[in-house]
Amino acid sequence: MPALFFPHRYPPLLRVAVLVLLSVFVSVFSEKHPNIESVSLTMAYPVQWISMQETGFWQQADNYLQSRAALESENIRLHAELIRAQPKLLEADILRNENRQLLALLDSIPQPPGKVTVAQVIAQNFSPGSQLLTVNIGARAGVFVGQPVLAAGGVAGQVIRVSPMSSQVALLSDLDSSIPVQPADADTPLLVDGRGDIDRLAIPFQPRNTSLKVGDKLVTSGLGGRYPPGLNVGTISAVIHNGDQPFAQIAVQPAVHLGQLDTVLMLWDRPFPQPAVTP
Amino acid sequence: MIAIALILGFFFALTAEIIPCGPFYALLHPDFVALLLLYWAISSSSELSLTIVWLIGLFQDMVLGDVLGAQAIAGVIMIYLLYTSLGRVRRLSSWEQLFFIFLLLLTHRLLVWLWQAWAGVITWHFSLLLGPLIGALLWPIFTLALDYLRHALRPRPT
């Protein structure tokens, strides 16, 4: 292998040192310029595309190899679920109408309904430091940075990087993630932070005599304007009052199985951004 | 031919790292790119350029979406450490190399972790130890498979 930039006559330790410095430079530079991240996501697209094809191949093979009995039992299960879901759908329709009437009585402007698009997960990267998913739609489909991402059950996370064909989602459990919530039956504003653990979130800075208790459901509060209010986030699974700690340690079980997502819902809560019309 | 096989190999190693197969796979899969780098460094007769190792690591960072430079620098330091005792490692059988590989993969994983922790909170996680261990246990099978592939792809004298 020919030496690319360095002739081999330089001592190896010097080469390592220069490359270390170069890495520091690259990481600091990319933190300062977020555009770099979108460029790097674009450059990574070929690998993600191959990964997507591989996933598709495995799913097809799995479908093909599934036995008739398994398919029949799944069919029965799905049918039962549908029967159970149908009344809820009717109820939702009734509630929506009622809500519109009530809003009209209050002279309040009804919110335009949000738009939801299904996206397929094409890559995942879970390490103790970061819990990211890559999905198969990007800026071309109108995805933007900070967009809420939902999944069956509630909130899954938000978009942090966008490239034309794909975008990257930080899950709620990511170390950098934090989401404003409130208990479903009160309006105490709270935060739920990611701790790098896929099925355990945390509420920071609550006093030891906190009124929160195990089993409380948490929904988004809508503060900050990023997530619409009222979406499921999780359930409090443990409240530990440790004598040594200044704050109570509160663990939250996320409403979504964050580790097993293969499709997610991208939510456009505000009106869908229209491409600028050029005259 | 070997060059194409190598590029394809790194592509597949990268896809194997990001393929969505559930949380256990995502946390415990061995670092295939690091394994491939180690195999390449140990089996190739010429010294591989640290710059190329760095570039491969940088591309891996782009694919994973981590802090840029984390995998890059971990790869360079891992290969450098390997080169400090390459002769000794080469004389060992692949079963005996397993221990060295474990230490190198562990160094790699911890360096990446430290680089990420630089920006965030430091939390210990059992996968930091188990990932390299699984990678090292796979090493003998991995070398066997790649030796076979390399033998099959070797240009034959006509």
From TrEMBL, chain A:
Record carries keyword Acyltransferase: no
GO BP, one annotated term: regulation of cell shape
Pfam families per record: MreC
Organism superkingdom: Bacteria
Gene3D superfamilies on file: Rod shape-determining protein MreC, domain 1, Rod shape-determining protein MreC, domain 2
Chain ranges of the Rod shape-determining protein MreC beta-barrel core domain: 121-268
InterPro entries (UniProt xref): Cell/Rod_1 (IPR042177), Cell/Rod_MreC_2 (IPR042175), MreC (IPR007221), MreC_beta-barrel_core (IPR055342)
One cellular component (GO) term of this entry: plasma membrane
Keywords tagged on the record: Cell shape
Primary role: Involved in formation and maintenance of cell shape.
Annotated family: Belongs to the MreC family.
Protein name (Swiss-Prot/TrEMBL): Cell shape-determining protein MreC
